[in-house]
Design a protein that fits this description.
Mean pLDDT: 83
Number of helices: 4
Structural class: alpha+beta
Order of helices and strands: HHEEEHH
Number of strands: 3
Low-confidence stretches: none
Radius of gyration: 14 Å
Strand order of the largest sheet: 1-2-3
Length: 101
């Protein structure tokens, strides 16, 4: 991941310093994806169903699996190591996500 993109995503994930829309569409998309995943991680954790984080196998990616018992559904997200590190910067994610097994 480009260091400039990483810094922009870090800034987008920081609630006290929001960044307005700009021409970096892919950066905004990644931040939106990570925020949505963080929301779902919190939701599952609050219901007593913590996410499972595993090695995904493809290019060293990580797989985050969530179970939604109220919807009888699942969500699986594949993240690069850098994306996972950014996700851990979201408040509450360090406690909610277990280390890969």
């Amino acid at each position: 991941m480009d260091s400039f993109v990483r810094r922009l995503v870090e800034r987008l994930l920081e609630p006290s310093r929001p960044l307005s829309r700009n021409r970096h569409f892919h950066t905004l998309t990644l931040a939106r994806r990570l925020r949505g995943l963080a929301r779902d991680v919190r939701r599952c954790s609050e219901r007593g169903l913590p996410p499972e984080v595993r090695e995904g196998g493809i290019n060293g990616s990580l797989r985050v699996e969530l179970v939604f018992d109220d919807l009888a559904g699942r969500r699986t997200a594949f993240l690069t190591g850098e994306e996972y590190a950014l996700l851990l910067r979201v408040p509450g994610m360090t406690d909610a996500l277990r280390k890969p097994s």
